[in-house]
Amino acid sequence: MNRMTAPSTLTLTRPDDWHLHLRDGAALAAVLPHTARQFARAVVMPNLRPPVSTVALALAYRARILAARPTEGPGADFEPLMTLYLTDNTPPDEIRLAREAGIVGLKLYPAGATTHSDAGVTDLRKTWRTLDAMQREGLPLLVHGEVTDPAVDLFDREAVFIDRELIPLRRDFPSLKIVFEHITTREGAQYVLGAEGPIGATVTPQHLLYNRNAIFSGGLQPHFYCLPVLKAEVHRQALVEAATSGSPKFFLGTDSAPHAAHLKEHAGGHAGCYTAFSALELYAEVFEAAGALEHLEGFASFHGADFYSLPRNSGTVTLRREAWTLPESLPFGEAALKPLRGGETLRWQLLDGSRTMAVGLPSDSPLTAA
Ligand code: DOR
Ligand code: ZN
């Protein structure tokens, strides 16, 4: 790519979102088209109530997602990639069934770390036999990497998790594939970059675009509140450097987490940024500002698929450099949903008509038949 003249369009192999919250029911119906028009596939988080903790629950949830897909046009071929919620009691036998059913990973929520994590893991040692089965079956562990110890400062919980939990875990299970989800710190980025063995990390648009000042500027800003919480500027810069470096260890995962606006804009407001509406455009802005647009395609379309040993997508999407203003609010069942950057102008716009087909699923995948 010629760095002297800024390109006015950008065509990428169709990207995937490797970390997404789709919810259920009316909320699912409201948000799914936003993701499906941009991404060929998404790894769907299992933190529903009750949690998606068995293969049977995951396949039923997958069917509800498919039923909510657009019936034609962009997004009609969107493929949800399902995960299971790891609990203290997930039976090791469920792991082989999960792999055979096309489940792509198990999500570790330390109990109490975030939204709907009360069924999460209270002590990793309780899951050892299950982790052992995952290592054997090659099923990745997707990690919400924060300790829940109330004595640890909220802003330090990711760095402390690395030392207390992640390093011992990887010593005990050196071949277990691990995705360190939504990393937010320099420590997180450096750990993944320097680590040997099968570990990758997703990075969200909000952690690349904003530091923690955003939460507290001009009054309290609940729409910038997510978990793990935004960090100081040095951390944001380290994340940008890692994500835009071209390293295959880092890939796109929005952690887009819709909550009704009135539940964010009150005391005890819910954690989560809604970025799915314009995710690709937000990432393009980050990569352009870093002078690294040539690395966007790897981050968005190749590294995640390679890590999960899934085929890359064929087909393309095109972004045009054309300013447009995001709506302030979107319909969300009976409520409203406020997208991150709502009411503000973005520099890049996804061209809807640009997509060509072809989602990367192996022809023998149980999911292709579903
Ligand atoms: O901000 C967040 N929202 N972080 C999470 O880990 C969960 C998510 C949600 O489900 O709302
Ligand atoms: Zn999440």
What's the arrangement of strands in the largest beta sheet? 2-3-4-5-6-7-8-9
Number of domains: 1
Q: Could you state the order of secondary-structure elements as H and E?
A: EEHEHEHEHEHEHEHHHEHHHEEEEH
CATH architect. name:
Alpha-Beta Barrel
Proportion of beta-strand residues: 15-25%
CATH topology: TIM Barrel
What summary fits the major beta sheet?
8 strands, parallel
Name its key features.
binds zinc ion; TIM Barrel; eight-stranded parallel β-sheet; three-stranded antiparallel β-sheet; 13 helices; alpha/beta; 32% helix; binds (4S)-2,6-dioxohexahydropyrimidine-4-carboxylic acid; 370 residues
Question: What this model shows, in words?
Answer:
With 370 residues, the protein is of the alpha/beta class. The chain has one domain (3-359): Metal-dependent hydrolases (TIM Barrel), CATH 3.20.20. It has 13 helices and 13 strands. An eight-stranded parallel β-sheet has the order 2-3-4-5-6-7-8-9. A three-stranded antiparallel β-sheet has the order 1-10-13, covered by helices on one side. Strands 11-12 form a two-stranded antiparallel ribbon. Helix 4 links the parallel strand 5 and strand 6. (4S)-2,6-dioxohexahydropyrimidine-4-carboxylic acid binds next to loops.
What's the layout of helices and strands?
Blueprint: E1 9-13, E2 16-20, H1 25-36, E3 41-44, H2 55-68, E4 79-85, H3 93-100, E5 105-108, H4 128-137, E6 141-143, H5 157-172, E7 178-180, H6 186-194, E8 199-203, H7 205-209, H8 213-216, H9 233-243, E9 250-252, H10 261-264, H11 279-289, H12 296-307, E10 316-325, E11 330-332, E12 335-337, E13 345-351, H13 366-369
Parallel strand pairs: 2-3, 3-4, 4-5, 5-6, 6-7, 7-8, 8-9
Antiparallel strand pairs: 1-10, 10-13, 11-12
